[in-house]
Amino acid sequence: MLKSLVRSVVAVALFIGIAALLVRQPSFGALPFIATSHADPARLRQHVLFLADEVAPRDIQHPDNLERAASYIADALTAAGGRLESQPFTARGARYRNLSARFGLEGLDRIVVGAHYDAFGDFGANPGADDNASGVAGLLELARILGKQAVPRPIELVAFSTEEPPCFASQPMGSAVHARNLRQTGTRVQAMLCLEMIGYYTPRQAWPSLLFRLVYPSSGEFVAVVGRWQDRALARRVKSAMQGAGGVDVYSYSGPSIPGIDASDHRNYWANGFAAVLVTDTAFLRNPNYHAPGDRPETLDYERMARVVDGVANAVLQPAGR
Length: 322
Hints:
Order of helices and strands: HHHEEEHEHEHEHEHEH
Structural class: alpha/beta
Number of helices: 9
Shape: globular
Helix content: 25-40%
Oligomer: single chain
Number of strands: 8
Distance between the termini: 51 Å
């Protein structure tokens, strides 16, 4: 009986070890930081304060506020030196728009980095600081970094509207409009990186299952790179680049689309045949203010946010062969 028990324990430990290797996709060695500047925590805070305080609520019931947010984003992307484009579309009988800015060369495989600027609104006024003013602030700081140096490949930064319900997982979801247009025009996309909630860090991290608790940290002081099994090579590259930037721990998930894995704009790039990963603080698993009035700017860690943006900049600037 003792031998059987030992064999069972060894088998379980082996299973957990293999599962950990598969879903975490360890990377060996960090890619050196090659950006010529770093993200500024003060600028990130400024962007979040505007989106969460000045133009709240940012939901589909308040199109005027969404348009004010869109104008602010357009001005920031233009000031950074991006080639700005506006992509208008109709949702629920009203007009909204995605804002995109291109950097670098044209005509090669494109890297897309996106974040949605609307906020959940079913319960009333929602500041939406982490969800997703944090992602948009990161996008705007990334634009500033890219505008300060030579960019070796086409990079498109996109701010999406109408990500939240009632448009989520529907045709007028802003990222669905953008991804569908890329496919229909035959645009070649090497990868898409989705910035969704990158600002909340805490000593305690909740997980949906025992397996996740065994495989991942119990402290919520890291950022996650999340993708499907077929996106595992992309997840490893992004994680290695973010580790090379330093300043924040990075873990990855590559596996089945369990509930929540596809709960942001990257889902629409998957649906249109593009490789994509999510960069996140694990959203509702970590942040108790998710879709709630407590999602305020003062709850975010702007120093860690800045290091996440540095990591994303390092990922998109790496030479194509890396």
